[in-house]
Design goal:
- By secondary structure, the chain is α/β, with parallel strands linked by helices.
- It has a domain of 113 residues: 3-Layer(aba) Sandwich (Rossmann fold), CATH 3.40.50.
- 49% of the residues lie in helices and 17% in strands.
- The strands form 2 sheets. A 5-stranded parallel beta sheet has the order 2-3-1-4-8, sandwiched between helices.
- Strand 5 and strand 6 form a beta hairpin.
Length: 216
């Protein structure tokens, strides 16, 4: 039976980093809806063209189109045994629509919980290299020389979406729109709550154990 792992958690919880690591450990494809958008738009696929029409007119891409894009990807042979889903669903409506399409699969949602104060510190302390896009953190991985990337010597800058004002807005949107998705999967009895404030290795070990339990 196909096993679908859904990663949940607020911005800054470490989903992207852990998803890539978990996918490698499980030999399971990491399917990111953000990547799917970029691929379909870049390749000019039929689905990409449809999405582009909504985006260019300032409208949200409908859930049905996002799900069509997702299932076009997971219909490929590498996803036959299962896959790791990152970035979707973001609303209860999306979760319900996804449920309808995954009726024959084993679903497990892994939810990374991190306090808002820790998330704000993680996100607002990030500095990105203009040259190679490597990310430093002023507390956790500061550059040897202030303002200079350790990897390539390029200059560091703070992205707009890493400013405190934008970070707080992103967390507010998450609480309003996406946190109810946790309750949706909790009610179904398929949610595993994991402490995302621990070290990356500890978080990974907990996620791997939860994922392997779902596969078993």
């Amino acid at each position: 039976m196909q096993t679908v792992l859904i990663l949940l958690g607020p911005p800054g919880a470490g989903k992207g980093t852990q998803a890539a690591r978990l996918a490698g450990a499980l030999s399971s494809p990491h399917v990111s809806t953000g990547d799917l958008f970029r691929e379909n738009l870049g390749q000019g696929t039929e689905l990409g063209q449809k999405a582009k029409q909504f985006m260019e007119s300032g409208r949200l891409v409908p859930d049905a189109l996002v799900i069509d894009m997702l299932f076009d990807r997971v219909a490929k042979s590498d996803c036959q045994a299962g896959y790791l889903l990152d970035g979707f669903p973001r609303t209860v409506a999306q979760a319900q629509a996804l449920d309808a399409r995954l009726s024959g699969a084993t679903v497990r949602a892994l939810n990374l919980s991190v306090a808002d104060a820790a998330l704000i510190e993680r996100l607002t302390g990030r500095w990105t290299c203009k040259g190679c896009a490597h990310v430093h953190h002023e507390r956790f991985s500061p550059p040897v020389k202030a303002g200079v990337c350790d990897k390539c010597g390029g200059s560091l800058y703070q992205r707009t979406d890493d400013s405190r004002e934008v970070v707080e807005k992103r967390l507010s949107v998450y609480r309003e729109q996406t946190r109810p998705v946790e309750a949706h999967y909790r009610a179904r009895g398929v949610l595993a709550d994991l402490d995302g404030s621990r070290t990356p290795d500890q978080v990974f070990s907990a996620m791997l154990a939860a994922a392997q339990g779902a596969q078993g």
